[in-house]
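Hey, can you fold this one?
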Amino acid sequence: MTDELQQLSADFMAAFDSLSLQLLGEAEPREPKAPPVPQLLDHAATALELSQNAVRLAVALTDTPEAKSREEAKAHRHLSTAAAEATSAAHLFTRSVETSLSPAPAPESHAARTRGARLLLDCADAGAGLRRAAESLTAANRLLEEHRAIARFAAKFLPRQPIPQPPGRTR
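Sure. Predicted structure:
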């Protein structure tokens, strides 16, 4: 499971990095701007797919026999947070698409002046959600690795066979 968590965290960071490059542009001077609609839809689809993967890992963790430990419960919360952040990011991307495709407001109106900023902020918030999701997955992975390392260490000192109970007194 830890390999899957590492890969999913890397996928979230790759999506965040891709969006960051698009928001900042590649030419100097860098003036932030929202990506075009097809790229926004692609980001929304990616965020939803990553969210589904985080949920699948949370379900897989729930189905493990040792899912009752405190550390694994914390890891489960981190996975749930990652899924929620990715779903929120997808919502923000689709809201940006909706704003982009809506009729342009009258020039020189307040709505016209704030439209670009609203698009940019929604995209930046979505990107931050992807980054937070990656951080949650990294934290979940770290917790699980530490928990399993401690369990392996403790197993060295625990008896391999149950200790026989002394025969009880019978009357």
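The helical segments are 2-24, 37-62, 70-101, 110-155. Let me know if you want another pass with a different chain boundary.
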